[in-house]
Write a structure and sequence with these properties.
Blueprint: H1 2-19, E1 20-30, E2 33-45, E3 54-58, H2 59-63, E4 68-74, E5 79-93, E6 121-129, E7 134-141, E8 162-172, E9 178-186, E10 207-215, E11 220-229, E12 234-239, E13 242-246, E14 251-255, E15 260-264, H3 269-273, E16 281-292, E17 301-312, E18 315-324, E19 330-335, E20 346-355, H4 360-364, H5 379-382, H6 394-410
Antiparallel strand pairs: 1-2, 1-8, 2-9, 3-5, 3-9, 4-5, 4-16, 5-6, 6-7, 7-8, 10-11, 10-20, 11-12, 12-13, 13-14, 14-15, 16-17, 17-18, 18-19, 19-20
């Protein structure tokens, strides 16, 4: 009987350990607020009872988190990570920092409605080691609430940007229960990036990119083009059979399927191109990207990663943006969906990119805004042009053929 009692006692004791077991310690901070840095204790628990200064994640939601558009090597540690991104239900606050994502009011910076998000939703990126499958960091995109006027925003200052959890020894993935991250002490150990050193140039360098647009949920990949000519204030963005032609006054949108062209004055070149900057995006380090979903094969590319929000003709939406570490060219982004679910979001990735030749690159691109019937002559959209030849360059054909082959191989 004595032995049975002791065994029962031990089992009860072990049960308490399982109910609320300490996994490791970590750090939490808002990148734009140095005073926010705190040490955290990470627990795995069987209940989601909320206590002060804690965030609670649902392990089942995390285990179903399958959206992975990017795989990269951290050059500082030489470790390789999957980036799982999307929306999760997260309860709680730390030091009254609520990280719930909020949709901007209709009309903010001229964008329309369409954003929806549930309460207690955070938009996150999990950095998962490809070997031990542990989570080593979580980035959380801040929505920008209370959405001050854009004229009052400053580079690398609140309310936009990101928050970050760091787990130096990693957290093993689990399928049930809850992940509880709680403040233990204030700290000065958080690795804040210098706001003077890491800022996106505004505007971005004028570059031309050919690549893909993909939606993982639909197993959909199509070709995409980005041609930015800042001197002329012109921008062409395409995804599949949809074409956008921006100038200083607004933009044309052309749909090949319906052969319809419409003029939209709601967002012009600067609205589309100038809002990819450090008012909304935080520097997240140099990543060596080794794999992009939708690309059959690729050479590793060193990029600077920027996490936050984009504000353009499509609205206000959370992204991870990538610029080439050597040239500064914009070469793609991963878009997060505000709705909870697997394989959400979308990606742009420009396999081939080069510096835009002002006037010439725009004038030689096909289909031009004239070809699709939006205007009768190029100068009606682009202003006075030089006597550039307007022909479909052989290089463009070769690029598009290459992309189609790569896309085809990927889905075999």
């Amino acid at each position: 009987m004595y032995v049975l009692v002791n065994v029962s006692t031990i089992l009860i004791f072990l049960g308490f350990l399982i109910i609320d077991s300490v996994i490791c310690n970590g750090l939490f901070y808002l990148q734009r607020i140095p005073s926010s840095c705190v040490e955290t204790t990470i627990n795995s628990t069987t209940n989601n009872n909320l206590t002060s200064n804690c965030f609670i994640f649902d392990w089942q939601q995390i285990s179903n988190f399958t959206t992975n558009y990017t795989t990269y090597i951290n050059p500082d540690t030489n470790q390789t990570f999957y980036v799982y991104s999307g929306a999760l239900t997260v309860l709680g606050t730390i030091d009254n920092y609520a990280l719930d994502y909020h949709c901007p009011p209709t009309g903010y910076n001229g964008v329309g409605s369409g954003c929806t998000v549930q309460i207690d939703t955070q938009l996150v990126m999990l950095h998962v080691n490809t070997i031990d499958r542990k989570i080593y960091a979580i980035d959380v995109i801040l929505s920008g609430t209370p959405f001050p006027s854009l004229s009052n925003l400053t580079d690398n200052q609140p309310p936009f940007g990101k928050a970050r959890h760091i787990f130096s020894s990693g957290i093993a993935m689990q399928s049930t229960g809850y992940l509880k991250i709680c403040k233990s002490n204030t700290s000065t150990q958080c690795p804040f990036a210098s706001t003077n050193t890491y800022k996106l140039p505004n505007p971005l360098p004028s570059n031309t990119g050919y690549g893909i647009f993909g939606i993982q949920a639909n197993s959909f990949v199509t070709d995409a083009v980005w041609i930015m000519d800042d001197i002329r204030q012109l921008l062409i963005v395409t995804l599949g059979t949809t074409y956008y032609y921006f100038n200083a006054s607004g933009f044309f949108i052309y749909q090949y399927d319906t052969n319809a062209c419409a003029w939209m004055p709601s967002c012009n070149y600067q609205c589309e191109a100038y809002n990819y900057n450090s008012r909304f995006l935080d520097y997240s380090g140099v990543w060596i990207i080794t794999k992009k979903w939708g690309i059959a094969s690729m050479k590793p590319v060193a990029v600077q990663a920027w996490i936050g929000n984009a504000i353009d003709a499509a609205g206000v939406f959370p992204i991870v943006m990538y610029t080439d570490n050597a040239t500064g060219h914009y070469i793609g982004l991963d878009k997060l969906d505000t709705v909870i679910g697997s394989k959400r979001g979308a990606t742009y990735w420009y396999l081939i990119h080069d510096t835009t030749v002002t006037l010439t690159t725009i004038a030689t691109y096909r289909p031009s805004v004239v070809d699709v019937g939006c205007v009768s002559k190029l100068s009606d959209w682009a202003g006075t042009m030089s006597s550039c030849a307007t022909f479909f360059k052989l290089n463009n054909i070769q690029i598009i053929i290459t992309l189609l082959i790569l896309t085809y191989i990927y889905f075999l």
